[in-house]
Amino acid sequence: MSEHDTSKSPSAFRTAEPDYRWQGVECRPYKEDDRALFKAVTRQVLFSDQNLAGELRYFEVAPGGFSTLERHAHVHGVMIFRGAGHCLVGDEVRAVGERDLVSIPPMTWHQFRATGASPLGFLCLVDAVRDRPQLPTADDLAALEADPAIAAFLRGAPAPAG
Amino acid sequence: MSEHDTSKSPSAFRTAEPDYRWQGVECRPYKEDDRALFKAVTRQVLFSDQNLAGELRYFEVAPGGFSTLERHAHVHGVMIFRGAGHCLVGDEVRAVGERDLVSIPPMTWHQFRATGASPLGFLCLVDAVRDRPQLPTADDLAALEADPAIAAFLRGAPAPAG
Question: What is the complex's ipTM, to 2 decimals?
Fold first, then answer.
């Protein structure tokens, strides 16, 4: 009935490939960002289907890199999938490792950083229909950096857990 | 604003625990099934939120166990997360291992089996609003078992990949 039905078998199974790639899944590098709001991130869309209200994506941040600092009305359900790093959710900075779960509430600043020697890979559940992310203004950044723990995180040097 | 805001910090981060459990996530064993349509499966709901159109669950099948043989209008996006096994999707039986992706189209019989010595754990993306699964009738089972590869799979002894 749909165009998917004619190729059911090829699309039903997609094999894992080395280095956290998947058969038939495009690995998209994020474009360079002039404002340095993200760095060294790739994105792979694992599930996006006209019959699914949600999408599952895999993001991977190279060591020293970070995902976009942003907020939006839609929420994220994140599972750390590879390696370790730190993340900011609202006013909280946390060390995260494999299989940890992170919920990003609506309109909450968030960022994931590969602060160690390993890549930081994470799965992200999101609604297929969603609002555009908002990027921080200079005032927003100043407000975030007023918190020493957040400022250290944004410099790529989060304080050790105390 | 919502009741979630008052406990944002505790709910934003849920730490991975040993043996594929998660902090604050209930691990539900499936009830025993008289018709033996499933066996030795547990379910953990990782993300289910009033602000999310999708849900992410983790199912784990003990060695020798299997998920429910069922079909439904809603679709599943599955990633094998732990171990290995076999799955049936429509008329196809496949060996699957960690990080492999499996898409279950609408109204397609499917089952996951831990056919080896290891548990088979998988993540399952699904719409929060969905129809009830249909279980096979005796006629449905007979039709499935008419295919030798499917019959072997349903006996828990899938043919080696050829």
Answer: 0.90
